[in-house]
Amino acid sequence: MATGSTTDPRPAIDAALARRLVDTQFPQWAELPLKLLDPAGSDHVIHRLGEDLSVRLPRHAGAIGQAAKESEWLPRLAPHLPLAVPVPVGVGEPDFDYPWPWAVSRWLDGEVATTESLAASSGAAVQLAEFLTALQAFLPEDFPDEGAREGLTGRPLADRDRATRAAIAEVDGTFDAAAMTELWDASLSAPGWDRPPVWFHGDFHTGNLLTLGGRLSAVIDFGELGIGDPACDLTIAFTLMSAGSRAVFRAALGVDDTTWARGRGWALATGLNAYVSYAAVNPRVASQTTRQITEALIG
Questions:
Q1: What are the pLDDT digits (tens) for 177-191?
Q2: Count of domains observed in the chain
């Protein structure tokens, strides 16, 4: 078993480690080639395993619950969803000084969705509304009981208040601080979700969508999957869509004013968090989050 400290926030991960973990824990796949996926994202190092599988190793402690969560719930959700999702086929254990659970999942072909190709697409907007409708319609009796809901209850938007106001002050001059404060105040004062809890993806933005042949084909990265208020998933309307396609999306999903207000707040808060954390060192993130914040302000 692993000998490294579980408090190490960034364990060393390379191809040799991935190879040893696969070969010892899943010997049926030992002959399959491994290829690093780059860039892989901030939460996992991802290797393609053969043609049909992927290996996902968490980079930091905040991502270590994803393997177990996806293994538990994605096989149940997948048959109900109109877009493909990365159903796990195995959960690996810590070993070789790697301290956390990791996963092998079915590989999903496709390219990461871009605003250049899909921002104005009413068809994509409808596809996304249909996906969220299906996710939210997964029946309440299929929910876990209270004891099994640990890790599935999302944080309320208000938990982000201090960090969001600090970020607004930090980026004043780059963005309109007064407009952001007005939006943030409105999102916090909007009435909360007063209907039965529903499933939400929890990290529903452009980078977690795949396309094939110019159409949306898959949704990935369910590490924030949970049950409660679905307003957080409206972030996609501000990371991917233009004003016109956003109106189509909202109508197709049937979003009321108060949920939309909370959704704009989620888009602003998550956009600001990523901007202040990464924009100075990552031009791609700077561009994406600038667009997200600007679109959230437009509404």
A1: 999 999 999 999 999
A2: 2
